[in-house]
Amino acid sequence: MTILCEPNCSAAAALVPAIEGVVRTVANLPDVAMTMNADPGENVVIIGSEVPLDEVLSFSGQMATERPDVAIILLRGALDPSTVAAAASVGVSEVVPVGDAQHLLNALQRARSVDMPELEELASASEPGPGGKIVTVFSAKGGTGKTTVATNLAIVLNADGARRVCLVDLDLAFGDVAISLQIAPARTLIDAVEAVGLTDDDLVDLLTTQFRPGLDCVLAPVGPGDAEKVPPWLVGELLVLLRRRYEFVVIDTPSQFSEHVLEALDASDHHILLTTPEIPALKNLRLTLDMLDLLAYPHDRRAIILNRSDGDGGLSASDVETAIMNPITMHVPSSRDIPCSINRGVPLAASHPDHSISKAIQQLATSRLIDEPVAATRRFGRRGPKLRKRSA
């Protein structure tokens, strides 16, 4: 049975025929809670577009804690990114545009296919325990050097094989890790989509490509349209497995708050936020910080990196800190050697460990990542354990 919360009677009447099976309609969220208390078997809730967003977020956050088995589908008239991100942050399964009956039907089928034993397995994986650290490198502005920083950081953390490190390319549509390291992408994240019947270790083996001893990569898909085939929940599950095998997992990301990126941010112990001393990049960083605050990620996860800090754009470090209203954690200088290292497929940290850029990234790793213990309470951020969904 599905619970539909819609205060507008006409809207509710129009929605019921689009929902398969028995539907119980209520007018407000307190009635949803009462209905669920009366029948604990209810685990799919559709919240209509007439319900205020602040009430939705409060209710969904409570459900994520008290009833993580409940799938919440939110209907909205317009799907703006801030609404989608806010809803995802409190555990809403999907946000569906009003009037898209097929989208709603697909969302319902996915919600009803949740496997409860697997939910319990994931919840258990999110409990404090041994494991590596996950580091996400992010910038909402393209061209700030995310891939360069991520690849060099992975090299530094690997320390010539002393530590096991996995570099994940989460820029699913336009990932550059493979080409930057000159790795043939014979294995990519898309291989996980059709993987059936594999053990956890076999799945990790299937997806990883070795770059050097102790440093493996999970590469982005290369086929047209493959990015859309990778469900966000798969990213969360994969990161659980990688954390178990590696001391560090470094994630390169696209320049957007996609659901895949939110999965990575949720699982991360550290958020490395990049910017450059240009006004558009600083504006996007300021918006990023506001979004991270909205999603309630702890401030101590963040490290702000000013890349190309010695550029001639006219903005000083103090100008940058004033603009973003936050201190800069690390300065990385510009260098003509970066394009050469990319064209050779060898990060500077590997070929020239004494280079100024290599030293800056080494300082970041030493001061913020290597010596800090894993935070036991940071497995999945605020959104709780993820539900493994099977294709309908």
Descriptive notes:
The chain has two domains: 2-114, 3-Layer(aba) Sandwich (Rossmann fold), CATH 3.40.50.2300; 133-370, 3-Layer(aba) Sandwich (Rossmann fold), CATH 3.40.50. The protein is globular. A hairpin with a 2-residue loop joins strand 8 (208-212) and strand 9. It is an alpha/beta fold and 392 residues long. It starts with a strand and ends in a 22-residue tail after the last helix. It has helices spanning 9-15, 29-38, 53-66, 81-89, 101-112, 116-125, 146-158, 177-181, 200-207, 232-245, 259-267, 279-294, 317-324, 337-344, 348-351, 356-370, and strands spanning 2-5, 23-26, 44-47, 71-76, 94-97, 133-138, 165-169, 208-212, 215-218, 248-252, 270-275, 302-307, 330-332.
- Distance between the first and last residues' Cα: 17 Å
Q: Note the total helix count.
A: 16
**Class of the largest domain in CATH?**
Alpha Beta
Indicate the overall shape: globular
> For the residues shown, what is the average pLDDT?
86
How many extended strands? 13
Strand order of the largest sheet: 8-9-7-10-6-11-12-13
**Rg (CA only):** 22 Å
CATH superfamily of the largest domain: P-loop containing nucleotide triphosphate hydrolases
List unreliable stretches of 5+ residues: 115-129, 376-392
Largest sheet: 8 strands, mixed
Secondary-structure element order, as H and E?
A: EHEHEHEHEHHEHEHHEEHEHEHEHEHHH
CATH fold label of the largest domain: Rossmann fold
What is the helix fraction of residues, given as a range?
A: 40-55%
Report the portion of residues in β strands. 15-25%
